[in-house]
Specification:
Helix 2 runs antiparallel to helix 6 and helix 3 packs across helix 5. 26% of the residues lie in helices and 28% in strands. Strand 24 and strand 25 form a beta hairpin. It has 12 helices and 28 strands.
């Protein structure tokens, strides 16, 4: 991997033979784990301008350049998360000479507040080619990380590292993105403005959040185009998507015993083999028919943006007897084929290393690009689900990738409920796929078992015989991490928001060493901890599973309002929580002293003054918590631990976080009316 410095450039073919498609990742961290930014990509012609607004790729317009560029969203890593972008360089329109990769922050946040800003570039097999670390981002709200550009028929990469004080609006305008005329009056608009505006016809129109009144000029580093002072508003797009109706039509059935005819029935599934065959066929069929889903699920694996065909029960020669992978995905672009073999497991069955190894060998011999495994399990960095051997003598490299059924359901939810697809038929197909995946007989329910070590570890904690260094504790930590990542996928799909696990560890730390340290803490403290960052919420949702007491605690810390006297702040919080559960536990956070007074919402409603710090302490915020009994079983059955975690998170979000958001919205509306 080549490390780049600001302003340096390199030809991609000098780094790898497999650069027809590449993956770029932008990453950062912050002391609190809450710092974030939005990634955007601009496709520029020979004049350094976008050809149209469609060449401006951002979170509400995640695909550009006829599918050659796609934002894949955030991916959890050992130390936080990264934004990934897929580039099918062979499919980039010939008029595009330069591709600029940038990111932006809002609400007064600056890139200088973030740590470990970096960019990595990998080829289609996942091998890292380039790394660019940024040390001097400064007080800017938009930042160009790097660019891909053509020179004499070859794609090259340049490490730019240029900041824009004028924010996303200034950056977009300088590269030719149009500005809404009517948005020019909205300089006072907040950065919380929704990115998607609902239309009466049920479709949605994409929009970029409007930055506050920007500074006049960008920072003139690097080779990017600069411009003089401008008044920037919201960049305009006209991308429309079809989404499902918000309310279902009234059923024509005579009674509840009538069942709607489904595209993908489940009544005849008798064993695991039938479940695997049906699930593979259903998913691959919908991927081929709904380009948005097919592209989204394969772009991260290096597949180009092109015509996709999918196959099942394919026979391929392998020694004395042929092998039959569960499926094959082929994508054709400009006469070139990209092929992946698919191995599927359902109902919690584990992947078999010998099967996956055989498919890796077949793929290498036949020149295929990838093997994709699909199961209920969730892959973790540094802890592969299947160990395979790679023959270093072979020139052709085959990438091994994994998808969980929770990943598939998440992407289907995001498309049909929040982002939309190209037409009503595609939306209906995705709805049928989601119904199939969520059906109790499909076997495609995601991570559902804490593993064989769960019961012995809980027993060892109860009788105080679990010792540090016990490998079973590490197994439980890995299962806990898988569960938390699945909770993020499920909740994010339901809300249409980014939900990511927070890892408060130093970037670059070995994930196995980190998990070993957490396992030692589990042995000594008997507790599992996790934090979720939900886009748009006032704090981080913390989850603590105390295996000694059998209690689950979900909590969030919110800052106290800066307006009014301390008693007014306490009353304001109680009013915001008017519909929250009576057993909600509220703790006052006091500067330099930690936790102050506490009590349940039921007791504090008539006496909010009981929340005020004693002895004149400075009130800085509140911690809100709900407690729930923890399931005993290791699975997701009615009494299972996994089910209890899901229920605790859902209850806390619906009854506490949603209440805070509704109260804040009411307060903001009242202030605007005044």
């Amino acid at each position: 991997m080549q490390k780049m410095v600001k302003g340096a450039n390199v030809g991609l073919t000098a780094l790898s033979e497999d650069v027809s498609s590449v993956m770029m990742s932008l990453g950062w961290s912050s002391p609190t784990g809450e710092g974030d930014a939005d990634v955007s990509v601009l496709l520029l012609d020979g004049n350094g301008k976008v050809r149209s607004d469609a060449d401006f790729c951002f979170y509400n317009n995640p695909i550009a350049g006829n599918g050659s560029v796609q934002l894949l969203g955030k991916t959890p890593t050992a130390d936080g998360d990264e934004d990934r972008i897929s580039f099918d360089l062979d499919a980039v329109p010939p008029e595009v000479e330069q591709i600029v990769v940038a990111a932006s922050r809002y609400g007064g946040s600056r890139f200088g507040d973030l740590n470990d800003l970096h960019l990595t570039l990998a080829d289609s097999s996942g091998d890292s080619l380039v790394q660019f670390s940024i040390e001097d981002a400064g007080a800017v709200s938009a930042f160009i990380f790097g660019e891909l550009y053509r020179r004499t028929g070859e794609w090259k990469f340049r490490a730019v590292g240029q900041g824009y004080e004028s924010g996303l609006g200034g950056l977009a305008t300088d590269f030719g993105v149009d500005i809404d005329d009517d948005a020019g009056e909205e300089e006072g608009a907040t950065e919380d403005e929704p990115g998607q505006q609902d239309r009466q016809d049920g479709t949605q129109q994409a929009a970029v959040p409007a930055p506050r009144a920007p500074e006049p000029t960008p920072v003139p580093d690097g080779e990017a185009t600069t411009a003089g002072p401008k008044r920037h508003a919201r960049p305009r797009t006209a991308k429309k998507k079809v989404t499902l109706p918000k309310t279902a039509k009234k059923s024509l059935a005579e009674n509840d015993s009538w069942r709607t005819a489904r595209l993908f029935p489940l009544s005849v599934l008798k064993n695991d083999r039938e479940r695997e065959t049906r699930a593979t066929s259903v998913l691959l069929s919908v991927m081929a028919q709904v380009p948005e889903l097919g592209r989204r699920l394969t772009a991260g694996f290096g597949a180009p943006a092109g015509r996709m065909e999918t196959f099942t029960e394919v026979s391929l020669p392998h020694g004395d007897s042929p092998r039959r992978p569960d499926g094959v995905i082929r994508v054709e672009r400009a006469g070139k084929l990209w092929t992946a073999l698919v191995e599927t497991k359902t109902n919690g069955n584990a992947l078999k290393p010998d099967q996956v190894q055989a498919y890796m060998d077949i793929a290498a011999r036949r020149g295929y690009e990838a093997v994709i495994t699909l199961s209920n399990d969730v892959a973790l960095e540094g802890s592969p689900l299947v160990d395979v051997k790679i023959d270093g003598r072979r020139k052709h490299k085959v990438a091994l990738w994994h998808l969980s059924w929770a990943d598939v359901a998440h992407q289907a939810q995001m498309l049909i409920r929040h982002e939309g697809v190209g037409n009503a038929a595609h939306a209906w197909l995705l709805q049928e796929l989601l119904h199939y995946l969520q059906h109790e007989h499909s076997g495609c329910h995601g991570f559902q078992n804490m593993g064989s070590a769960w019961v012995p570890v809980r027993k060892g904690i109860d009788d105080e015989t679990l010792c540090q260094g016990d490998p079973r504790a590490t197994e439980v930590i890995e299962s806990w991490e898988r569960l938390i990542r699945q909770v993020c996928l499920r909740l994010g799909g339901e809300l249409g928001q980014k939900v990511l696990p927070v890892q408060r560890t130093k970037r670059g730390a070995d994930p196995r060493a980190r998990r070993a340290d957490l396992a030692d803490k589990l042995c000594s403290q008997g507790r599992l901890d996790a934090e979720l960052r939900i886009e748009g919420t006032p704090g981080v949702l913390a989850i603590a599973a105390d295996l000694r007491t059998g209690k689950l605690r979900t909590s969030i810390e919110v800052a106290a309002s800066e307006q009014g006297y301390p008693l007014s702040r306490a009353k304001r919080l109680i009013r915001q929580l008017d519909s929250a559960p009576a057993d909600l536990h509220i703790e006052t956070l006091v500067e330099a002293e930690g936790v102050g007074p506490r009590g349940t919402l039921e007791r504090l409603r008539p006496e909010p003054a009981d929340l005020l710090p004693k002895d004149g302490g400075e009130l800085v915020g509140f911690r809100l918590s709900l407690f729930k009994g923890m399931g005993n079983g290791r699975g997701s059955a009615e009494s299972g631990f996994i089910r209890s975690v899901d229920e605790a998170v859902d209850r806390f979000h619906a009854l506490v976080i949603a209440q805070l958001e509704a109260g804040r919205a009411r307060r903001t509306g009242a202030e605007a009316a005044r």
